[in-house]
Amino acid sequence: MRKNGQHMLSQLKETRHKIPPCNPPFWARGGHLQTILGHLLPSEGFKGPTEEFLISLETENEKIHSTYLKGHSEVVVYIFHGLGGSADAGYMNRTARIAQNLGHHVFINNHRGCGKGEGLAREAYHCGRSEDLSAVIRFGRQKFPHYRHIAIGFSLSANALLLLSAKVRGDSTPDAGIAVNGPINLTKTSFNLNRGLNKIYDKTFVWELQRYIKKNRTEDFDKVKNIKTLRDFDDAFTAPAGGFKNREHYYESCSSLQYFKDIKIPIVLLTSKDDPFISHDDYSGFDRNDFLHVHIENSGGHMGYLSKRGWFSFERWQDLAIKEYLLTLSSF
After folding, report:
1. How far apart are CA 227 and CA 214, in angstroms?
2. Is position 142 within any domain?
3. Which residue range forms the structural domain that includes residue 266?
């Protein structure tokens, strides 16, 4: 198993050499500009017919909404969004297009209660809901039992994917994965969000979660309607609703960093040094696990990764990196 892991890690390192660095244009330098502009600038999504699925979760009558794109290869790709997002997010559609262009089958997933899945689940999603990813992958394995299954998680979902890869809170694991800008140390991330300009992101997350609660759990809205920070939201709602003793128990239980040693499938961990609220230092020092390939870019912000093409034009470096890593992971 170790020899196999070393071989896969070697191939992923070779892939990294094919990927040029993210060289930001002058108007998108710094983690905040990368993060904000990366999410605001338009991007092209997938094309073609789709099929809609409602996937049952372990909790009775709870379902996840998934959009399926038919492919012709023997690879299935699952894509999961971040906090406050949905399957309609630009980075989700771009990633689906990448997998689609490679000929793969694609499942583009809403977390419970998000996007087209609003009202289909009472329980709330959070950073530790690896069982939800597991349910989707189990569904896909039943549909394509002999194919290769690769999961891509962004931000919140990246952490959940890493938990699942270590078989924490879920048992239907993918064959490989890509985790982009995951908050692998939830306590540190929660404090980072309360500092300086990061409070803008913190308030945005809280507003999105309040909207989510108002639509999915109306009776709990009074508990959260006046909350100002994500830490307070997690203390008042996320932790008790998720069955945790308190906020600290939730953060400690669901931070994937502690489980990296238990991951036995090839995973690409992609992040940047200038992510405003996720500390890249937590990603360092995992060469001892032959299944983990850590790629830390100097620039990119939080899932921004705008790279210079011309004086004013740009390209999506994140898309290039995902394509190259997806090609390699599909070949194992």
Report:
1. 13
2. yes
3. 2-185+255-331
